[in-house]
Write a structure and sequence with these properties.
By secondary structure, the chain is an alpha+beta fold. It contains nine helices and 30 strands. The strands form eight sheets. A four-stranded antiparallel beta sheet has the order 1-3-4-5, with no helix packed on it. The chain has a four-stranded antiparallel beta sheet with strand order 6-7-8-10, with no helix packed on it. It has a four-stranded antiparallel beta sheet with strand order 11-12-13-14, with no helix packed on it. Keywords: Phosphoprotein, Repeat, WD repeat.
Length: about 575
């Protein structure tokens, strides 16, 4: 099973030209050991609780006493047999003693004095890491006789190079029950898309958000420009990774209970952590993330626990929690002008517009006919916003007509874009009125939004299965590029300007310096996959049905988590 649940572009100029290799030094060891110890403590607590529950679920006092008497009698019989066997075994061992004396096996398991005094490393899976001998350079290692070629290091450095004209494309992927984040490099001029590196994740990723601020990185100004990503998963925590570091073992920061060691120490003696929503961290799947581009240290998150939380990335703590929705909150979007206003969509069939500075004030709401899928502000007119729903409808609202009563709301226009859920959609930041919608019906549609309403430009099936992500390029040079991914686990980048219908509708809106570079030949760039290329391009109906079952299972798990 392979599936891509979310994608996100990284604008040009933010990625480091030469990403660095992960350095496992003393400070990093201490940080990882602390994180690992927290996870081991959680596992130990879960085991102890499970044993206590199993003991409490016994058959009663009478039954237990009978069982104890049977055990005692069986132990007596075994002890008699063992005494006889020990005598014969000791006679056989005497013959081997002379040969084994030189190995001193009798003291093989003895504890050293240093370990008795606490010097030894008892850190679980990382217990022996510090005792391993290593050298800064292979030249200093006496066991390595073949010296490194300097050209090999230079070649590896060149392979990792990211040019100023390259874009990064982030993809949250599930493959063979393993979850990871793939970092692609998209070379537009060369029509090339390839995986630069990937990051292993602890749980199924549901949403990703690119960050331009360093989080949890020592020796760096907290307000400097950086290249990070926040990942929301089925686990309630939000992990933040440095995209300019290759082969990372652990995230730079964890937003939530998993990253709060002090909170865990306080609750160590308490029962298993509650699933009840609180003001400090999420207790259910994180479904949406939104970074504030003006107040760069603020990150908003939405969860299946029905709450919206505001995080301070400088401290990696929750600054505020909001509970104005009555069902799962699945989508978020910051206003482009009023930077403290947040738009949120929920399964309670409403979209809310709230000022984060006034947590006690009831937000303005609009109502729709079914569960909300995604919400976005109009990037070319901040008075309007879009809401897509499970029934395949796109709503266009004017915030000036919204009230606190969702039943009284009325959309400027409605569009039946798809027969199934509009799982994702995007608005072009460069070309006004250019909208892309995608659905679980496996199609992607491009629309021209004018004063008279939306008009269909083109519809296309990219053979990615059920479409879960469709996003336009972030820069003017790649404004017509659309990244599409879905349930088959593949991602493609389509140059929409090579389509005749797109050129017909948007030629007058296209920047003049890019209009001359438009190619008439269709441009669809994907990643070469040996396994997929060896099979037929279209998958069997049975395989596609299995993928659909996997998607439904994920959705069902979210529903069970709420119950």
């Amino acid at each position: 099973m392979s599936m891509i649940t979310a994608t996100a572009w990284v604008p040009r100029g933010f990625a480091a030209p030469f990403p660095t290799k992960y350095a496992f030094d003393e400070e990093e060891f201490e940080r990882i050991a602390a994180l690992a110890k927290l996870q081991l403590d959680d596992a130990q607590e879960d085991l102890e609780e499970a044993e206590a529950e199993a003991e409490a679920a016994g058959n009663g006092v009478g039954a237990s006493t009978e069982a104890e008497s049977e055990v005692k009698s069986s132990k007596k019989k075994k002890s008699k047999k063992s005494k006889k066997s020990k005598k014969s075994k000791q006679e056989d061992d005497i013959e081997l003693d002379d040969d084994l004396k030189e190995y001193d096996l009798e003291h093989y398991d003895d504890v050293d004095e240093d370990e008795e005094q606490g010097v030894g490393q008892n850190m679980g899976m990382f217990g022996n890491v510090k005792t391993l001998a290593f050298y800064d350079s292979n030249k200093d290692d006496p066991y390595i006789t073949m010296k490194d070629d300097i050209n090999d290091d230079e070649a590896e450095r060149e392979e990792l190079q990211i040019l100023a004209t390259d874009n990064l494309l982030l993809s949250a992927k599930i493959e063979d029950e393993l979850a990871h984040l793939e970092v692609y490099v998209y070379e537009d001029e060369a029509d090339n898309l390839y995986v630069h590196h990937d990051i292993m994740l602890p749980a199924i990723p549901l949403c990703i958000e690119w960050l331009d601020i360093p989080v949890g990185k020592a020796g760096v100004d907290k307000d400097s420009v950086a290249n990070f990503v926040a990942v929301g998963t089925f686990d309630p925590d939000i992990e933040i990774w440095d995209l300019d570091t290759v082969d990372c073992m652990y995230p730079n920061a964890i937003l939530g209970q998993g990253g709060n060691s002090e909170e865990k120490k306080k609750k160590k003696k308490k029962k298993k952590k509650s699933r009840k929503a609180n003001d400090e961290y999420h207790v259910d799947a994180v479904l949406a993330l939104a970074a504030n581009r003006k107040h760069r240290n603020l990150l908003a998150s939405a969860s299946a626990d029905k709450t919206v939380k505001l995080w301070d990335l400088h401290t990696a703590k929750c600054a505020k929690s909001y509970t104005y929705h009555t069902d799962k909150v699945c989508s978020l979007a910051w206003h482009s002008v009023e930077s403290t206003v947040l738009l949120s969509g929920s399964y309670d069939r409403t979209a809310a517009i709230a000022d984060m500075r006034a947590p006690t004030e009831l937000p303005t709401r609009v109502g729709v006919e079914s569960d909300v899928e995604t919400v976005k502000w109009d990037p070319h007119d901040p008075n309007f916003f879009f809401v897509t729903t499970e029934n395949g409808i796109v709503h266009y609202f004017d915030i000036r007509n919204a009230t606190k009563d969702p039943s009284a709301s009325k959309a400027v226009w409605q569009l039946q874009a798809h027969d199934e859920s509009v799982s994702t959609f995007d608005l072009n930041m460069v070309i006004p009125g250019f909208m892309a919608t995608a659905s679980t019906d496996k199609t992607v549609k491009l629309w021209d939004i004018s004063a008279g309403g939306p008009a269909l430009v083109v519809s296309r099936d990219f053979d990615v299965g059920r479409v879960f992500s469709a996003t336009f390029g972030p820069d003017a040079e790649v404004a017509f590029r659309l990244a599409v991914a879905g349930s088959k686990g593949t991602v493609s980048v389509w140059d929409t300007s090579t389509n005749a219908s797109v050129r017909k509708f948007f030629a007058q809106k296209m920047p003049s310096k890019f209009a001359k570079e438009v190619k008439a030949e269709d441009r669809l760039v994907g990643v070469d996959d040996d396994e997929s290329s060896s099979s037929e391009s279209g998958e069997d109906d049975e395989e596609e049905e299995e993928r659909g079952d996997d998607v439904d299972e994920i959705a069902g798990s979210m529903d069970e988590g709420e119950d």
